[in-house]
Amino acid sequence: MELHAIKRVYGAYSDVYDALFKRFFYPRIKHAINYMDIKPGDRILDVGVGTGLALSEYPKFCTVVGIDLSTAMLKKAKKKIRENSYKNINVLSMNAEMVGFEDDTFDKVFISHVVSVVPDPYTVMDEVKRVCKNNGQIVIVNHFKSRNKIVMAGEKFLNPICEKIGWSNDLCLNEFIRRSGLNVYEKYMLKKLDFWHILFATNNKSVSEGNDVAYGRFNTASTGAEHSL
Ligand SMILES: C[S@@+](CC[C@H](N)C(=O)[O-])C[C@H]1O[C@@H](n2cnc3c(N)ncnc32)[C@H](O)[C@@H]1O
Predict the structure, then answer these.
(1) Which of 38, 47, 62, 224 is the most exposed place for a label (fewest CB within 10 A)?
(2) Whose CA is nearest to atom 15 of ligand 1?
(3) What is the CATH number of the domain that holds 196?
(4) For atom 26 of ligand 1, which residue has the closest CA?
C-alpha cells in the first residue's frame, strides 16, 4: 500500500481496530513478546505500533518506543499509555521507511502485522537493522503467502481486496527472510493451521543476505509454547 492509502485506511480503522483484530492478533503478539529475551534496561522499538495492542506485554524494566504513520492509530496507543500509566513507553509519529533514530539505538525490535502493509518491506527492514544494535534481536509476527496450493490460489484471488482494506497477501516468507538479510534462528506458527508466522532473528550486521531455518514445526524447544490444532 502507498503511504497516503495507509494513513487513510488505518485512520478509518482506528476506532474499531481492537474490536475487529485483537482476538486474532493479540495471542501471537503476547506469545512473541513473552519469548523475546528482554533484559532490564533494554531499549525496544515497536515498528507500526498501531493502537498499542502489544504495550501491555512489555515489562516495566525496559524502555519502549512505538512508531507509526497513522496519528489516529497512535491516538489509541497514547490513550492506553495514559490509562495504564506506562511510564517506560512512548509513541511517536514516524515513517518506518525513514526511522529518525541513530544507528544502533535499540537492543530489540518488534514488528507485528506491518511488513505486508508497508509499500516496501525491505526498506523498512534495512531501517530496522540499522537502528537495532549488532546482534540485537528482531522479532516479526506476520502473515506470509501460504505454501498450500489451494490456500495460495484463494489468497491470490483475494489479494486485490486485501490491498484495498489494509494489507497484502503475497509476501513470500523465504524471500522475505533472504532479501531482508535476517539471521532467523526460529520460525513457527502457533497452530498447525494458522495464518501468521512468528520469526525470531539476530541482527547480524555483517550479513547482507539472510539465512533460512527449517521450520521449527509449530515450535517447541526454546519457546515451550503450547500448540493446539
Ligand atoms: C495491521 S496494523 C498493525 C498494528 C500493530 N502492530 C498490531 O499488531 O496490532 C499496521 C500498522 O502499521 C502502520 N504502518 C504502515 N506503514 C507504516 C510505515 N511506513 N511507517 C510506520 N507505520 C506504518 C499502520 O499505520 C498500522 O498502524
Answers:
(1) 224
(2) 118
(3) 3.40.50.150
(4) 50
